[in-house]
Each structure stands twice: as C-alpha cells, then as structure tokens.
Amino acid sequence: MTIAHIESVGPAVHHDPPEVVAQRQLLGVWLLIAGDAVIVGSLLFTYLYLRGLNTQKQWMPAGVHGASLVLSWGLVAVTALSALAVWSGEQSIRRGKKDAVSMALVAAVLALAASAIGVAQLAQIPHALNSTSGVRQIAGSYASSLLALDMSNLAHLVLLAFLGLAVAVRVGRGATSAQAWTHARFVRIFWVWVASAIGASAVVTTLFVNSPH
Amino acid sequence: MTTTMPTAPAPAQPAHRGSAGGGLMRRLNFGTGVLAGVALAAVAWLLSHSLLDSAGTFFQDQVATITFIGWVVGFLLGIGAFNGPINWFRGRDLTHDDELYLAGKDLGPRRYWKFCTDHKVVGVQYFVMTMIVLFAGGVLAMLIRIQLARPGDHFVNPQIYNAFIGMHGILMIVGLIVAVSGPFGNFIMPIMIGARDMAFPRLNALSFWLLVAAAVPLLAVFAVGGISDGWSTYAPLSVQDHVGMDAFAVGVTTFIISTTIAGVNMVTTFITMRTKGMKLDRVPIFTWGVTTSAALGLYAMPFFAVALTLLLSDRALGTSFYLSFGGGTDWLWENLFWLMGHPEVYVILLPAVGAVLEIATVFARKPLFGYNVVVGGMIGIVGLSTIVWAHHMFTTGWAPALNGPFMLTTELISIPTGVVFLALLGTIWQGRLWTRLPLLYVFGFVWNFIIGGVTGIYLSDVPVDNQMHGTMFVVAHFHYVFVGSVLFGALGAVAFWFPKMTGKYLDERMGRVAFWLVFAGVQVTFISMFISGLMGMQRRVSSYAHAMATTNFISTIGAFVIMAGMIIEAYTIVTSWRSGREAGRNPWRSKTLEWQVPTPVPLENFEVPPVVTSDPYGYGEAAPPLEAPAGHPDATPVTVGAAAKEELQS
Fold first, then answer.
1. What is the C-alpha separation between B13 and B94, in angstroms, rounded?
2. Do residue B606 and residue A169 have CB atoms under 8 angstroms apart?
3. Domain segments of chain A: what residues?
4. What is the Rg, in whole angstroms, of the alpha carbon atoms belonging to chain A?
5. Roughly what angle, to the nearest 10 degrees, separates helices A69-95 and A140-173?
6. Are A199 and A80 in contact (CB under 8 A)?
C-alpha cells in the first residue's frame, strides 16, 4: 500500500496566499490570548484565594481601605473607549477612509491615558511597617494582589499604546491599508481582550473586597 | 511507493514594501547578542545602584532582578530578535530577500549563530543546546551522587549540596522539556506534515534564543549564592533565599516565555499548515505527540511564570503573596506551581511517546496499532493532566476533602496512558523487528516506562503517598519516567532522525555501547534508590543513616555508569556528525514525508507542496519480506513493495 503520494499540484508557491497567512496569524493571536488569559486568570485566582484565606487576618490590615473605585472604573472606561477607537479605526482602514490614522492615534493616546491611571493606582497601593518583619512593605495580601493586577494592567496598556501607534504609523505609510488590513484586525482583537481583562479585574476587585473570614 | 516531486518555476513574488533591516540586520549574531546583553546588564546594574535606595531591605534583590532582565533584553536586542517588531512598527515589512537572508540562505555554518528563521536550523540549534543543558545537569547529578556515595557531609557542605540539587533539577527539567520538541519538533514536524516552515518562523527563532538568554541567569545562579530549596523552590523558603533565587526566577520566567511562544507556533503549524490530504487521521503520531505537548505547555507554563513573578515581587517589592505574616500563604505557591508541575510531566513525556511510537512502526514494519485510540489517549492525557495537580499536595494539609477526588483523577490518567502504552506493545507485537539502535531505545522505553508508570500509580494513592511522600522512592519513580522513558525516547529519536538531520548514520556499534551502559545504569541507580526510599530515606538530604549506605553506594555506581554511557553517546554524536557513514535519503525505508525529501533538506523542504493520499503506516501490506532482519543490524527490511526491492538490489 502506498502511504504518501507526493504529486505535483501546479506551480510552486513559495508564499501562501494572504488569506491563508491571515487565518494562520489569527489562530496565533487567539493562542497568545489564551496563554495571556491563563496569566490574568492566575492573578484573579490569587486575589480571590488570598482573600478567602485571610491568613493571620492580614488580607486588609488595620488602616487599609479598598482601592479607589473611581480609578478602577475610570481605567475600564478609558480602555473601553480606546477599544472603541481601535474598532472604528479598523473599520476606517477596511473602507479606505482617511480618518484611520487619527482613530489609531486616538486609541494610542487613550491607552497612554489609561496607563497614567494605572500608574496612579499603583501610587495608591498602601504601604505599612510590618510588625513581624520590621520592614516597611506593601500592607497585606489585598494590597499585594492589587499591585499584581495593576501591574498586569499597566503592562498590557503600554503594549496597547505601542500597537496603536504602530497601526497609525503603518496606515500612514500605506503598509496597512484597505487591501492589507488584517494586522489592524489582530490589534483590535487583542485590544478587546485587554479591555475585557481589565474589566474583569475591576469587577472582581469591586465585588470582592472584604474577606468573608 | 509513488513519490513525485517535479520542479516548477517560482512565480513572481508579491511586492514587498520598503527595506527591512538594511545592513544592521545582517551584522547581528550571537556575538553581538552577548555584547549587548552584557552592556545592558551593566547599564541596568549601574542605574539600579544609582537610582534605588541602597539601604533598602530589598535593594540586593531589586538590583539582581533588574540586572538579569537587562541581560535578557540586551541579548535579544543584540541578536536581532526585536528587528521584526521594530520594522513592523515602522511600517517596513520584510522583503523576500530579507526573508531568505533570515532563513540563512547562502550563509553556511554562520546561520547557526544568527537569528535564523529556518526551522531546520532552529532544530539543530535546539539539538546542540539540549545536549549542553543536559550535560550540565548530568554533571551536577554526578556531584550529588558523589556526596551520597557514603553517609556524612564528606564532599560538600549542605548549602552547596542544596544548590546542586536545585540546579540539577531545573536544568534537567528545561533540558527534557526541549529534548524532543526542540530538535525534532522543529526540524522534523513541519516536513512530516508537508509544510515549508513553521507557521511563525521569526517566533520560532525567538523561542530558541530566549532559551539561550535564559541559560545565562540559570547558570549564574551558582555565582550569586545558589538556591537552597530544590527546583520546586517552595515558598516561603524561596522568598528568603539568596540572590541566586532572583537569577533563577528571571531565567525560568524567560524560559517559560520561550516555551509559550513555541507552543503557539507548534499548535498553529499543526492546525493550519498540514499539506493537502494530510487529514487529522493521517498525521504521523509523532506530530500528535509534539502538538498535544505544545498545547498543554501553552496552558500550564504560564502558571509557573505567575508564581515566579509573584515570588520576585515578594523578594524585591515587599509584597506578601507567600508570607503568612503579611496575609500570604505557601499554599498559593504550591497550587500555582503544581498547576504547572504535573501537566509539565506530560509536556515532557508526550513528544517522547510520539517519537517512540513513530520508531516502533518503522522498525516493526507494522501500522501503528490503534491509531485513533492513541490520539484519543494523548488528548485524554492532556485533559486529565490539568486536574491532577493536588496529588502533589496530599501531605500539605491543603483541602483534605479533595484528596479523594484528586486520587481518583490521578488514577484515571493511568487509563489513557496505559492505552497508549498498550498501543506501543501492539505495534511491536509480532512485528518483523529490525533491531537497529532506534528500536533498542524503544525496548528500553517499554521496560523503564512500565516501572516508572506503575510506581506512579502507587504514589497517587493517598495512604501510600502519606508514607512515601518526600522519600527517595518518589525520586526513583520520576527518574524512571524522565530518564528511563523520556531520555530513552529522546535518544531513540536522535538515533532515528540523525540521518535526516545530518546525512550520516549514528554509529551503530558505539551507539549500542552507549545504550546498554545507560540502560544498565538506570536499573542499577534507580532500583537501589527505590530501596533507599522504602527504607525511609528522605530526598534532598546531604547525608543519611548508615543503614542506607549500601543502596546509596550502588546508586552512585549506577549513576556513573549512566554518565559513562552519555559521554559515549555524545562522542558518538560528534564523531558520526563529522565523519559518519553516509545515510542517504531514506535509510530506514520509512513512509512518512520527512524521509521522502532529499538529504540535506532543501531550504523550503518541498519544491511543490505534496499531496497525501493515504495514512503513513502502510507497512507490510505489499510484497512479503525477503528476510526477517531481527538479529541482523545491518540488514534492511524489505516490506515496502517492489520499488523498495529494486532500490535495495540496485
């Protein structure tokens, strides 16, 4: 029995068609998001787990209060707006409209603004002198978990700002256009994922603050 | 067998925009990477000294972390890993010439020192890197066994011994994770499925050079105090450990990024780049092994990255994830670590199983027994391995009510594993065995895996685990899995695919000497270790009671026999590569696609994409064999029909 015929199927094609490459890249983007989702999920698990345990009543030591909801939800709002701008920019690119560059720039600026909110959140992480270690450090596991989530959000937002700027530059130079818009789509998918992750963080840190124990 | 690969003129390439790397891209290599890495590490060190509070509690850890991150970023920058994103940002996509240059066209041996995107080059790079990492881990194993050759701290003090233990563990884990997937997943798998390259060639190169970048902090661990708590680096001990722990955390996290990227690449390649006719039930089983492993790694490895990042945060930023006085808990570490740790066993094992099954079909001249069941078994292993992690925590006191369910899931996973194992036996059973070196490793795998697997089932049982946890019995169990099974699978893969990768046979005689030494050494070392464990000897101790002296001494002798075998294996690889016997295109008369292309494999593998019309294991269904070649190592089986017969006679 023959196991594998290798036959000619026409002329050699050393580059796959763009739509095939795009499908491949799309799957790659989703897989990267899946890996990223494990990271974000682990951080949320960490938050909820430490809250549930409240080891030595140090989830929120005396004097520590919940994080600013204004900043948390402000971050969500700005990131969501930036995602909207990216989506709109992608539509403009696909239709060949001239406002595509400005929409991508708006998205990048909004991502930078969201990053600034992220920095403000980090600045509010409470520190205290730990009586056991005798060291001034981040006060309790609530603040520690917030720090991890905030830093994760910030890292994502900086990446978004880079991507938004890149799309603007590429559109400006014609590398991304109505004929070649798939990269803008990938950026938009990743952007929406980041906005969702930041939203999930905000929901968890809003609904689950005080430890039940 | 019908094999037609006509040449065809290359069509006009699509227009590419702009110039990509210019001269810079062509000047970057490993040397510039090292220079840039050292330079940026130095800058990071100086900056952190000048900007951070040197009297601060966390100062040393902050400096070490920033410095090692500086090395990683600098190295990647210097070798050209960021050229792609920077050029993409600038809207200057690569030209076709640039792509060919990156793929190493006309670069000769220099391409092995560059950010080369050709999957075959990356495969060879992984191969060499794996040998280096495993050798380093092996040397540490010898040092450990010297210490344990007799009771008492006669060789090194416990602190240094602990460092040996931890670094031996992590180097071997890193080495084994990439041992099969790295060299053969990269070199062989794309050809096997009829692809011209991996889905994302630049990510492929990035995953390899991230591994190199990770190796430096890992090896630097010794220089900055070592680690005291094994490769599992349990918190809170690891929070209090030397600065070496920062190097460890940066190195391992970098490695995890590497494996995650590689996982994305391999899964995407498998799903989207199979050639026409390569249906899921025609894919060679090795490819399934690599892909299921990659998918599992993509899920599992980020847990460890998070665990390590939180550890660094506790050490350098003063958080309290693992410190109970600050509201943290060591159970968090244990959960995150083992959420990675047990799937990681299968991340390591599945490619080796795939390789062994692949070899078995070729050298038994039989179709794979129960192909669909094997694929189902592999997928079952992936699924179940995500819900067994807490069996490592039976004795920790975490959620005792869950001990029963986790015991059940752990025992359940033995079912798909057993199914795959039975399929291997079914493939060998009544085959026309051609006992060349690769098949010897299959036999070794069968023997060792049954011991490693069955003892694993014992340990999944809560009452037994309560007795055995933390003893040398457990160490012997997982060494039978890792050394006895995975390493044998990897060495079998080396023997099998060496002719395709190098064009030369791996020397059969020397290879057999190495095989028997390693095989005998494994039995001597680890059966004695089982006995030490049953006598109650704890793992990770630098000394022990005199009653265990004999079994430990025997283990040490066995370990040196393994090392002797591995040195001979390494010598055989080097000499065969340089001056081995020419192997030709398809020395094993195998039917999978990688053997149908010329050796050395052309840059883009196939002049035209192949079309597959049937499964890859149709052995023995054509002409009857001319002879039963068992016992005649140099004899070639003739079971692939008239074409092969003519080829042999010619």
1. 13
2. no
3. 66-123+135-213
4. 22
5. 20
6. yes
Q: Tell me the CB-side half-sphere exposure of residue B607, using CA atoms within 13 A.
A: 15
Q: What is the DSSP string of B577-593?
A: HHHPPB--S-TT---SG
Chain pair A-B, CB pairs under 8 angstroms: 234
- Under the banding of pLDDT at 50, 70 and 90, the label for residue A6 is low
Token pair, residue B63, equals: 């400096």
Which residues on chain A are in Cβ contact (under 8 Å) with B196?
Answer: 14
Give the mean pLDDT of A88-104.
93
Write down the ipTM of this complex. 0.93
B329 near A CB under 8 A: yes
- Cβ neighbours of residue A179 closer than 8 Å, sequence gap 6 or more: none
Closest CA to B314 of B300, B329, B331: B329
Residue A7 has pLDDT above 60, yes or no: no
Quick one: average pLDDT of B513-529? Answer: 98
Q: Which domains does chain B have, with CATH numbers?
A: 18-116 (no CATH), 117-579 (1.20.210.10)
A29, A31, A160, A162: best mutation site toward chain B, by most B Cβ within 10 Å?
A31
* The pair of three-digit structure tokens given for residue B514, joined into one six-digit string: 């190495």
CB contact under 8 A, A144 and B320: yes
**Shortest Cα distance from B71 to chain A (angstroms)?**
20
Strand, helix or coil at B471?
strand
Please give the mean pLDDT across all residues of chain B. 91
B32 contacts B40 by C-beta, under 8 angstroms: no
Query: Measured on CA atoms in the order A77, A78, A79, A83, is the torsion positive or negative?
Result: positive
Give, in order, the Cα–Cα distances in Å from B342 to each of B303, B395, B457, B540.
Answer: 11, 16, 14, 20
Q: How many residues does the structure list for chain A?
A: 213
pLDDT of B647: 46
Q: Is residue B271 a contact partner of residue B361, using CB atoms and an 8 Å limit?
A: no
Q: What is the mean pLDDT of chain A?
A: 91
> How close is the nearest chain B Cα to the Cα of A149, in Å?
11
* Cα B631 from chain centre: 32
The interaxial angle of helices B119-148 and B488-502, nearest 10 deg, is 140
* Close Cβ partners of B246 (under 8 Å, ≥ 6 residues apart): B61, B64, B65, B68, B224, B312, B315, B316
- Check if B447 contacts A (Cβ < 8 Å): no
Strands A127-129 and A136-138: antiparallel
Of the candidate ranges B123-137, B218-232, B322-336, the one whose mean pLDDT is the lowest: B218-232
At B309, list the tokens: 């990042």
How far is B59 from A40, CA to CA, in rounded Å? 28
Which pLDDT value is given to residue A29? 98
On whether any CB of chain A is under 8 Å from the CB of B316, the answer is: no
CB of B27 within 8 Å of a chain A CB? The answer is no
Residue located via tokens 């699978």: B489
pLDDT digits (tens, 9 = 90+) for A109-119: 999 999 999 99
Q: Judge whether residue A146 has pLDDT over 70.
A: yes
* CB contact (8 A) between residue A169 and residue B91: yes
Condensed to tens digits (0 to 9), the pLDDT of residues B142-151 reads: 999 999 999 9
Q: Which fold has domain A66-123+135-213?
A: Four Helix Bundle (Hemerythrin (Met), subunit A) (1.20.120)
Contact (Cβ atoms closer than 8 angstroms) between residue B516 and residue B126: no
**Looking at residue A133, what is its pLDDT?**
72
Quote the pLDDT of residue A14.
Answer: 60
- List of residues 6+ apart from B15 with CB closer than 8 A: none
